[in-house]
């Protein structure tokens, strides 16, 4: 599994290098530099950077006091949160981050895996690189999903950061660290609590997990169910699904669920193609029943007792 992950990272990084090489700009001419304030004789540090979000007209004054917060500082690399704000066009919060590679001869790749906002598990990946002796300035957007947390209410950001060394041919992991960022300070963190609605349907609820249907939606491509999932255990929870039926007819491609980390919750959307539903003679705007087999168990414990293992059936 680790080898596959390394190959994937290598492929993505190679694509990034090709994209940069095919640009019509001369990178040597356009690359910005940061000069040390301590001495004019010190060598300038090259910065691989996209334009800071704070320079765009879509921004408003940041409500977050956090600035120049060093989240990780090690002998070979550091991660600093320069500032935090939000884009009032997309209504997404973001972090301006500096990734520093302190080595003289190694390229580093920084990749986040699990991320949480106020304890809510979210998918906000960051994949960036920093050349030897350089600082990469990146903008990391935070999407709490389904507008469940307003931008001004983000008080706790947690992410698992993987650092890889890349030699031009292959990469290998050199460090893993958990980043904690508290926009208003550690004494002011809050935990996300879902507020139930009258239209919710509880699909599964036991001592191990809760799965709630919080809504459905449809466009020209997908029919989607919106779920809120809670892992009540101290284990990473896997959820797999088997055959699924809509109005009694078997539909291809069973729903997919991600892993839910211990004592965490998340929103997840599962989709069926509208065309697949119509191929069965079903009107996707008038579905009366959906059913599928659900198997919930602790990651790495497939042969142990499962948390839930039944077919669920409901009207969306």
From TrEMBL:
Record field: compositional bias (Basic and acidic residues): 27-44
Domain of life: Bacteria
Signal sequence extent: 1-19
Residue stretches of biased makeup (Polar residues): 47-59
Spans annotated as Disordered: 27-59
Entry keywords, A to Z: Signal
Protein name: DUF5067 domain-containing protein
Organism: Lachnoanaerobaculum gingivalis
